[in-house]
Amino acid sequence: MPELFTKTMARNIYLGGSVFFILVFLALTFDTTARLPKRDHRENITEQVALGKKVWEENNCIGCHTLLGEGAYFAPELGNVYQRFGQSKDAIKAFIQSRPVEGIPGRRSMPQFNLSEEELDAVAEFLKWTSEIDTNNWPPNING
């Protein structure tokens, strides 16, 4: 075994390692792209789900809530709220409608957005749709 570490040896290690990790990266990329369509449920997006997402964005719900781990951590996770509310869109709608206009003194609370019945239905449908996403059991508990 030579005692000198030559430039040729260093170059070969560098190039060999680079090729190896590029191949690993490509293999993992192809594996991921093969698995994702099986987890996707975009074909279930209806006009009502799209309207619910629009209402979600217009009212900046993500400014307080997280949805599938993304957003603010001020209020509860809503990616699994459909399961937490007993798989009832009516319960979600009733909760949103029950928020007091002035809030709860001394506590952080969700404001009353005065959504129309159509918007309430759409938000509930959007939250139902998000609960059906295969998240590999994330968040790890039902409370988010």
Explain the overall architecture:
The protein is built from 5 helices and 2 strands; from the N terminus they run ααββααα. The chain is mostly helical and 144 residues long. The chain has 2 domains: 1-39; 41-144, Cytochrome Bc1 Complex, Chain D, domain 2 (Orthogonal Bundle), CATH 1.10.760. It has a two-stranded antiparallel sheet. Helix 2 packs across helix 5 and helix 4 (89-97) packs across helix 5. The longest helix has 33 residues, at 7-39. The chain is elongated.
Compose a concise summary of this entry.
With 144 residues, this protein is mainly α. Helix content is 51%, strand content 3%. A hairpin with a 2-residue loop joins strand 1 (66-67) and strand 2 (70-71).
What class do helices, strands and sheet pairing give?
mainly alpha
| CATH homologous superfamily title of the largest domain | Cytochrome c-like domain
Quaternary status: single chain
CATH topology of the largest domain: Cytochrome Bc1 Complex, Chain D, domain 2
CATH class of the largest domain: Mainly Alpha
